[in-house]
Design brief:
59% strand, four-stranded antiparallel sheet, mainly beta, single chain, 11 strands
Length: 121
């Protein structure tokens, strides 16, 4: 069994900061990309940021310069530091990992359960 467990969501004021974390656990052999997605009410889920196993990153245009994705490969954990938050960042944030679990030849995408981020004064 593989689980992705997110933490760190909550309420922030406009201009404030939050940090999300997501820990992957279980019988994991290797993790490729790790990413954060978000889904606002009435909208489709969208990619926020992605980081490769080698540390290369890519961001959605609206969060560039405000959000930073990082990972700790020893802990199978990915982080999302969110600064200068805006009301339009309000959404459920989901962790995603492309990984290979014990007993499998293939890499598969796994999702966390999501964590709510609300930006409001």
């Amino acid at each position: 069994q593989v689980q992705l467990v997110e933490s760190g969501g909550g309420l922030a004021q406009p201009g404030g900061s939050l940090e999300l974390s997501c820990a992957a656990s279980g019988s994991i052999l290797s993790i490729n990309d790790m990413a954060w997605y978000r889904q606002a009410p009435g909208k489709q889920r969208e990619l926020v940021a992605v980081i490769t196993s080698g540390g290369n990153t890519n961001y959605q245009g609206s969060v560039k310069g405000r959000f930073t994705i990082s990972r700790d490969n020893a802990k199978n954990t990915v982080y999302l530091q969110m600064n200068s938050l805006k009301p339009e960042d309000t959404a459920v944030y989901y962790c995603n990992a492309h990984l290979r679990r014990s007993g499998s030849y293939y890499y598969t995408y796994y999702w966390g359960q999501g964590t709510q981020v609300t930006v409001s004064s």
